[in-house]
Amino acid sequence: MRSQAGLTVEAAAARIEVSDERLEQAESGASALTEAEIARAATAYGVDATEIFGGRITPLQNYAGG
Q1: Is residue 1 part of a domain?
Q2: If I label 12, which of 36, 41, 51, 56 is the partner at 20 to 30 A Cα–Cα?
Q3: Residue 39 domain-assigned?
Q4: 11-25 as b/e, with b when 16 or more CB fall inside 10 Å?
């Protein structure tokens, strides 16, 4: 999504308010972004936040036996 939005890692990280390294780790799956960071990423990429999750969000009760 970042590259489709025409953003470099550096530009996207600045908009999301994370370090370049943190964004690279999130993109590779080595770490996760917080909810607030995901919301900022969606805004930076010009998409709805649900698109980052493949167009759907798993209800909280589905996690950890909730």
Answers
A1: no
A2: 56
A3: yes
A4: ebbebbebeeebbee
